[in-house]
Amino acid sequence: MALPITAGVLSTAALALYLNAKHHLIHDLRHGRGGLAPSPSHVSYLAARAASKRVLTFHVLEEQAARRPEHLFLLFEGREWSYGAFVDAVARVANWLVDELGVEAGEVVALDGGNSAEYLMLWMALDAVGACVSFVNWNLTGEGLVHCVKLCGSRYLITDSDVRHNVEPCRAQLDDLGVAIVYYDASFFAALPAGAPIPPSRTENITLESMRGLIYTSGTTGLPKAVVMSTGRDLLVGHMTAQYLGLTPSDRFYTCMPLYHGAAHGLCVTPSIHAGCTIVLGRKFSHRTFWPEVAASRATIIQYVGELCRYLLNGPSNPHERAHCVKVAWGNGMRPDVWEPFRQRFNIPVINELYAATDGLGATFTRNHGPFTAHTIGLRGKLWHWRHGDEEVRVKMDVDTEEIMRDENGFAIRCGVNEPGQVLHRLDPELLASVPGYYENEEATLKRRISDVFEEGDLWFKSGDMMRVDSHGRVYFVDRLGDTFRWKSENVSTNEVADMLGKFPQIAETNVYGIAVPGYDGRAGAASIVMADGVTESTFDFQALAEYARSVLPGYAVPLFLRVTPALEYTGTLKIQKGRLKREGVDPDLVTGEDRFYWLPPGSGRYLPFERKDWEAIKDKTVRLT
Length: 626
Ligand SMILES: *[C@@H]1O[C@H](CO)[C@@H](O)[C@H](O)[C@H]1NC(C)=O
Ligand SMILES: *[C@@H]1O[C@H](CO)[C@@H](O)[C@H](O)[C@H]1NC(C)=O
Ligand SMILES: *[C@@H]1O[C@H](CO)[C@@H](O)[C@H](O)[C@H]1NC(C)=O
Prior knowledge:
Elements: H1 12-23, H2 25-30, H3 40-51, H4 57-67, E1 72-76, E2 79-82, H5 83-99, E3 108-112, H6 117-128, E4 132-136, H7 142-152, E5 156-160, H8 164-167, H9 171-176, E6 180-184, H10 186-190, E7 211-216, E8 226-230, H11 231-245, E9 252-255, H12 262-275, E10 278-281, H13 290-296, E11 301-305, H14 306-314, E12 328-332, H15 336-346, E13 350-355, E14 364-368, E15 378-379, H16 382-388, E16 392-395, E17 421-426, H17 442-447, E18 449-451, E19 459-469, E20 474-480, E21 485-487, E22 490-492, H18 494-501, E23 507-515, E24 524-531, H19 542-552, E25 561-564, H20 579-584, E26 596-599, E27 608-609, H21 612-619
Parallel strand pairs: 1-10, 3-4, 3-5, 4-7, 5-6, 9-10, 9-11, 11-12, 12-13, 24-25
Antiparallel strand pairs: 1-2, 7-8, 13-14, 15-20, 16-17, 17-19, 18-19, 19-20, 21-22, 23-24, 25-26, 26-27
Bound molecules: 2-acetamido-2-deoxy-beta-D-glucopyranose (NAG) (3 copies).
Residues 396-397, 399, 405, 490-491 line the site of one 2-acetamido-2-deoxy-beta-D-glucopyranose.
């Protein structure tokens, strides 16, 4: 049900309640720390935009262009656009969408392509004509791609001709669904005739609760799910993030994270538009282009994910890596072993770590200059607990079943100091419409919820993340639920093991996971490792690694198996892939590819090559793993 919002009808207080109910705004705001406080000004901001019927990110862009037409909006591979020039380009694309494709307000349109100026033009043009953008992962092909296009019900797949090789194999299936493939490239857009401005009446019916976009989950455990983003949420995240980061027009914000994903979308592009600053867009991440692009563009803030930082730290030194203008690195997933070395080597004063998920509730922030909050993703002080301790909790998990543990009365058990547990956020059963849901997937939406947690009838949202809080209230990310495994009745956090192995000088990168071994309960620890530059299997010190692992990890957490691989597998958003490695384990009949295996046999002081006879010995129990 869509209620019309007009400031004249509702008082500010009533409006605040209404907006909060619709969008769970206060919930999100409250979870912010360090500058992101719940503020009536955010509510009035939304109310004013709703009243003037200018609720789109495109509207904000248009206003910035009117204010400072000559100011630099976008730098991409040496090309640049001022705000004014970019809005003109958007108008050309928007007119093409309307005149040639007949795109209507409210229609969902699938967009597929890598980072480029044209991609950003299309996103803004679709926004401008009131369409709802379905941000398809350009890395998809086959079943995954067809699934996403079908799910969102788009008539078109508007695609960068660069990803033709992913799209063409699906042409027959897309034809059957009635989906037309439309390719674009830079020269096509440059040749479009100048267009009239988009009439405001086109978007007159879009309200804060209208669906604005669909952003897909990575689908590492099945087909991608589409997360619905409302117009109000999109607007507010951009507005608040710009404020939280203190962005000003003179900032230059570099991202090479994919634009189809929530992080580049809501934590870089929309905040930059709200601030009227300059976006420096990288086509994709590469350690060769990263520092040269950052330095040449005079970027003042860069966006990261943890794995990007690790790559850079493992990479060869670059003449630009300290000679740049970056003041702040902003992102999520920076691991403890990377944090301080990253700051020091690359000469970046502030690391601003955030924890949030596209399909999650709540977010935490740490603006870190020094050791007290280093490696943490948030701080929960006394005041925080007094105000919100009842809305966000960590509960103990059964590591094997991945279910929430229950006490004798059937209720969940809160974690104590330093005890890892899944983070839950309380839901108000009356406000469910505002909780992030998956598009056309009620089952998956409901699976994220759980009731009767602390009392009958209560309702909570499962974050899927394991965290712990120390006695100072510092919050640490422990593992994604399902990654932590049990061995010899102990819980092993794959992240914590990986952090330790990552410090071994001959290891560049590592991916830790638990594998099933016949005849054993729980899972045995395995680590896929990429050797540091110049190190080979003949020069790698397998004895030193065994000694090091035993000295820094409890016995049960020392990986029993190593899988030596030339490169780790990542998703397009640089999340590490564990699924295939877990499935294959060390079973010679399941393992694919050329990776080499080692193991730590009982009583051995070093890792030794692992062969089929060793696997047979484990299976027939002539060898017992310890
Ligand atoms: C997806 O991206 C990865 C890493 O960038 C690449 O290796 C792979 O070939 C890509 N797959 C497709 C289908 O584009
Ligand atoms: C907005 O809604 C009104 C009333 O339903 C309708 O007449 C009008 O055509 C709609 N405008 C657009 C651009 O869809
Ligand atoms: C493992 O985790 C479970 C659930 O959080 C907890 O009850 C148990 O005590 C942990 N085991 C150990 C040995 O820490």
